Amino acid sequence: MFFSSLFSTSPITFVLILILCIAGVNFVNTTPAKIGQGYKLISVEKSPDGGLIGHLQVKEKNTIYGPDIPHLQLYVKHETDERLRIHITDAEEQRWEVPYNLLQRETPPSLKETIGRSRKNLIPLATSEYSGNELIFSYTNDPFSFSVKRKSNGQTLFNSSSDDSDPYNHLVFKDQYLEVSTKLPKNASLYGLGENTQPHGIKLYPNDPYTLYTTDVSALNLNIDLYGSHPMYMDLRNVNGEAYAHAVLLLNSNGMDVLYRGDSLTYKVIGGVFDFYLFAGPTPLAVVDQYTSFIGRPAPMPYWSFGFHQCRWGYHNLSVVEDVVENYKKAKIPLDVIWNDDDHMDGKKDFTLNPVNYPRPKLMSFLDKIHARGMKYIVIVDPGIGVNNSYGVYQRGIANDVFIKYEGKPYLAQVWPGAVHFPDFLNPKTVDWWGDEIRRFHELVPVDGLWIDMNEVSNFCSGLCTIPENRICPNGTGPGWICCLDCKNITNTKWDDPPYKINASGIQAPIGYKTIATSAVHYNGVREYDAHSIYGFSQSIATHKALQGLEGKRPFILSRSTFVGSGHYAAHWTGDNKATWDDLRYSISTMLNFGLFGVPMVGSDICGFYPAPTEELCNRWIEVGAFYPFSRDHANYYSPRQELYQWESVAESARNALGMRYKLLPYFYTLNYESHTTGAPIARPLFFSFPNSPQLYDVSTQFLIGSSVMVSPVLDEGKTEVKALFPPGTWYNIFDMTQAIVATEPHYVTLDAPLNVVNVHLYQNAIIPMQRGGMITKEARMTPFTLIVTFPSGTKDLQAKGNLFLDDDELPEMKLGNGHSTYIDFYATASNGTAKLWSEVQEGKFALDKGWFIEKVTILGTNGADGAFEINVDGQPIEDTSKVQFITAEHKYIYNSDDGGDKRKSMMMDIHGLKLPIGKNFDMSWKMGNSA
Fold it and tell me: Domain Glycosyl hydrolase family 31 C-terminal spans what residues (predicted)?
C-alpha cells in the first residue's frame, strides 16, 4: 500500500515539485564537466592472500562536493576463476560498507596496509597486469585508471579511463561524492540497475535516469527509483555471432545516480566505498550462477507458494474473506493462499487482531477449515510500531531499546497506526525482539507466512516530528497518509543535505523526504544516510530467522523493499501498479529484472492495484499472471472488487491459464530447486536460452519459464491475435500439442488469441513433467504424472532431456540427502527407427513412499509407433503391457520455415495406461513408424 497510489502523481509529490520549481531547482544534474585530475598510483604490492594492494594519492585537490580524500587504498583479488573484486576506500579512515554480517564476503586487508611500512612485496609500477584464469585486471598509474579484460578473447569488460573529450571524470573520491565510469562498446546490451519501471523494456535505455535509493513511490511511475536498490547490471555482447555475457556489481548501499549514455556508464554515489565485483559469465545463466553464488542463492519456496494467491486491501471483516474463498471454489478457479492486508489489525497495529471484524475464535475456526483443505493464510506486517503505551509490542520494544534514534530518543514518524517508531534491524537485540513478537503473534494466529511492506522505509512525514498536544493524530477522517504530526525539516546536517543531490523520486527530492531522517542513528552509530537502502533487506533477514525458528518449516516472506541478496530470504512483488495495458506490459520487464537480481520468486499485482480494471484487461492479465513465478491478484482499498470470479469471462480465462499452471506445478517447483542451487531465474528473457540471436536481446513482451516454456501474451486492448517472435527450433502449443511451429531463424508468427486464450509453447529437446492439476496444490501434487517429450521436427537423430525434483516442502532446506527428497533425470532419443525414453533416479524412496507414478507419456515430433514396445523398471521387464495404448495425431504446422528440411510426417503420440513408479529407474522403447 502507498499513499500516492491513488494518483499517478500523488498530491504530496505534486506539491513538492511545485515548491521546488518555484524555488528554481533544476531537475537535471548540473555536475561540472570535470572534477579534478583524479589519483596517481604511487605503489602497488602483493597482499598475503594473493591479491594486489595499491596506494593512490590525489593529484589536484578541489572542493566541488567537498574536499578530496587524499589517500586511497586499492585492493584487487581474483576471488574465484570467474569473479574479480576491486575495492577502493580511504586508506586512513574506516568508511561505511554494507555490513559483512548481512552479506557475507571476504574482508579486505586492514587500512594503512600501504602506508608507512617496509616493502618486501613491491611490484614495479611498470608492471600493469594482474591475471586470473578468466579475467585480467590492468591499471594505468597516472592518472590512475583500471580495466578488466576477458582472457579468452581480449574483450574489455570495464574501462575506467577518462579522456579530455569524455563527459565524465577521472576517479573522484570524496566523503559524500564518489564517481567512476566505464567505457562501453555501442553494441552492448545492458540489463539491470533496478528497481524501476522501465517503459522501453528490459534493456537499459541510453539517457534514461537510473537512480538507486529505496523509496515508497508507486511502481506506476516510470524511470524513478522505486522500492529496491540493485546496483548490478549484466552486459550482453554479440561478437561475430557468438554471445558473451558478464555482470558488474557495485556493492554499495548509499544513494546513487547511474548515468548510461550508450557508450559509457558513470556511477555518482553519495557515500560508502567502491566495491566492484565482476562476474565473467560468459553465458547469461553462468552470470546469474556466479552472481548468486556470491550474494546468496535464492531461498527455497514451499510448494504451495506456487499456487494462486488472492489478496485485497479492504476485506473489512472475516465474513468477506470467507466468501472470497468459497466463491473461488464455486467458480472452480484454483486458489491456495488467502491474504489479509491491514484489515485484520486492531487500529492498524502490527501483530494484533481487530476484536470486532476479525474475532480470534472465528478466525481460528476459519483457519482450521482452510488448513484442513490445504490452503494457507498470510498477513501483512509493516515496520512502524505504533506509539501506544497500552500496546505490548511497543512496550517491549521500548524496554529492549530496539528503535532507530535521533539525538538519543526513538525517531518519531507516522505510518498507518499514526505515530510510530522504526525497529533497528542492525541491532542484534532488535532481531531477537522481532523474533519474539512473531512467535507471540503466531501463537495468536497460526499464519503461514509474512508480508513485510512499507520497508523502504516509508514515512508519511518528513524531518523531526513530535506528537501534537491539542489534536488527535490521526483523527480518523480523511486519507490515512496525510501527515498530522508536528514536523520541521532538518537541513543543517551534511547527512540530511548532502552536497550532491541524487535524482531521488525523479525530482531531486531531499533524501529524507517521506522516510527516516538520514541523520538518524542505528546501532553502533551507523547513520540512516548510509544504511537507508538496506532497511528492507535487514528486516527480511530478521523475519526469515524468526519464521524458521517457529516450527522448523520453510519460511515464506514477501518483501516490498529489496537489496543485493534479498532473494536469499524473500520473494518480491513489484508494488503498486496501475490497472492499465501499459502496466501489464511493464510487469514483464520488472519480473525479468528480478530474476537477474537473484530474486526469482516475483510477480506483479494481477489486474492492477488500482483503479478498477476493465474486464478485458483482467482477462489478459490473468493469462500473463498465471505464469508469473509468484501469482497473486491484489487490489486497492478504494478500487471495486476484482477477484477473478467477478466476471464470467475472466473466470474462464483463469480456469484456462491457472489450470495449465497447476498442471505445470512439477515443472515450476523443479525450477525452484534449480534456482536455489544455481540461481537460474524461473522467468527468463528469451535470450537466456538463445544468447546468440541478437534479435531477441530486447524482447520484453514474451518470456520463458525455465528454458523450455515460452509465454506469448496479448498485451494490447481489443486484440485477438498476437505477433510472437519464435527463436530457432520447433515449438509445440501446450494447449493443443498437435500444433507446431518450426523456425530456422528468429521469426515473427501471428497467432490467434481469442479473449480466453493465451499462447504458451514448448521448445524442442525437452522433457516436461506435468500432473493432472486441480483446485489446490495439495491435491494437484498427488495426482499421476505425464511426461511431455518434445523432439525437434524434421531431423533424424532426436534427443530430449528434463528433470524433476520432489521433496517435503515444509522442510527448511531444499536438498538431496535428507531422506525427504527425490531427484530424477529423464532422457529420450530417437534414431535408426527406434525411440527410447528412460529415467535415472537419485534417492527414490521419498517418491516411492508417496506413491507417485507416471500414467502417460506424450511424444512430440516422431512418426508414432510400429511395434516392439518394451518397458523395464529397475532393469526388470514388464511382461503385461496389455493396458498400454497408443494414440497418434498428425502435427499441424502453423508456421514452418524449414523448407530445406526433412519432409517426414511428424506425429503427436500419447502412450496411455502406464503406471511407472517415479521413484524407480525405468526405460521404454519402441519401433517407430516406417517413414521415420
Answer: 679-768
- Please compute the mean of the pLDDT values over residues 161-185 and round it to a whole number: 96
pLDDT tens for each residue of 388-431: 999 999 999 999 999 999 999 999 999 999 999 999 999 999 99
d(CA 132, CA 86): 13
Residue whose C-alpha cell is 540461481: 679
Let me know how long the chain is. Answer: 932
* pLDDT confidence tier of residue 18, bands split at 50, 70 and 90: very low
Report the relative pairing of strands 853-862 and 785-790 from DSSP bridges: parallel
Q: What are phi and psi of 684, to 5 degrees?
A: -135, 150
| Claim to verify: residue 404 and residue 494 sit in the same structural domain | yes
Retrieve residue 657's grid coordinates.
Answer: 491459464
Q: How far apart are CA 447 and CA 443, in angstroms?
A: 9
Query: Residue 440: how many CB atoms within 10 A of its CB?
Result: 13
Beta strand 721-726 pairing with 747-752: antiparallel
User: Is 90 exceeded by the pLDDT of residue 931?
Assistant: no
Cα–Cα distance, 850 to 923 (Å, whole number): 21
* Residue of 347, 356, 354 whose CA lies nearest to 394: 347
Neighbour-count burial of 86, counting CB atoms closer than 10 A to its CB (0-12 exposed, 13-18 middle, 19+ buried) = buried
Q: Which helix (H) or strand (E) holds 14?
A: helix 11-22
456 has catalytic annotation = yes
Provide the grid cell at 268: 555518482
Active-site annotation holder among 179, 342, 453, 633: 453
Residue 160, C-beta contacts closer than 8 angstroms, at least 6 positions apart:
145, 146, 147, 171, 180, 181, 182
State the total domains in the chain.
Answer: 3
Dist CA 275 CA 505 (whole Å): 25
Annotated active-site residue in 175, 576, 809, 898: 576
CA angle 228, 231, 233 (to 5 degrees): 115
Nearest Cα to 601, choosing from 889, 830, 239, 309?
309
Q: Please choose, from the candidates 768, 769, 767, the residue with its C-alpha nearest in 3D space to the C-alpha of residue 780.
A: 769
Among the listed residues 542, 496, 502, 497, the one whose alpha carbon sits nearest the alpha carbon of residue 516: 496
What is the grid cell recorded at 866?
510400429
Residue 6: C-alpha distances to residues 11, 612, 660, 681 (Å) = 9, 11, 34, 32
- Tell me whether residue 663 is in a domain: no
Domain coverage including residue 250: 38-295
Cis ω before 199 (30° cut-off from 0): no
Distance CA 146, CA 139 (A): 4
Cα separation of 391 and 381, whole Å?
16
Active site residue 341: no
Torsion angle, alpha carbons of 904, 908, 914, 919, to 10:
90
Catalytic residue among 113, 342, 437, 456: 456
Of the three residues 576, 604, 624, the one that is the final residue of a domain is 576
pLDDT in tens, 589-608: 999 999 999 999 999 999 99
Q: With 50 as the cut, is the pLDDT of residue 932 above it? A: no
* In a shared domain, residues 343 and 264: no
Given 295, 321, 344, the domain boundary residue is 295
Active site residue 736: no
- Which residues lie below 8 Å from residue 864, measured CB to CB, with a gap of 6+? 886, 888, 907, 909, 928, 929, 932
Q: Which CATH number characterizes residue 316's domain?
A: 3.20.20.80
User: Is residue 150 within 8 Å of residue 131, measured between CB atoms?
Assistant: no
Q: What is the CA radius of gyration of the chain?
A: 29
Q: How far apart are the first and last CA of the chain?
A: 59
456 occurs within a structural domain: yes
CA separation, residue 810 to residues 305, 765, 852 (Å): 11, 32, 18
In this structure, are 187 and 325 located in the same domain?
A: no
CA-CA distance, 335 to 326, in Å (whole number)?
10
Cell of 25: 531547482
Indicate whether 644 belongs to any domain.
Answer: no
CB of 106 within 8 A of CB of 112? no
